[in-house]
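Same chain as my last thread, 95 residues:
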Amino acid sequence: MESTMPQQTPLPPVPTFALSLEGRLLAHRRLLVELMRSLRESHQAELMDWLEDRSIYRDGQEDPGAVPSEGVALELARADEFRLLKRLLGGLDPD
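reply #2:
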């Protein structure tokens, strides 16, 4: 009996894979921003508030100068992505 599972494309070498992944992320980000821009203004405003609430990682630490551990890298990246999306949706330069 032949397998019905689709054949997966082998992953490219690591440097190429990283660039491929970055390209895919940029494409998804651009599509997401265009979809958000197509919303009515009231929905855009709600979305901007939602992004604002999530654009700063709050870990409960009292020391603002504390060095983050590797365990929070994902959360910091997520917060940064929300910040970036908010800026792009607002028509601002991402940086």
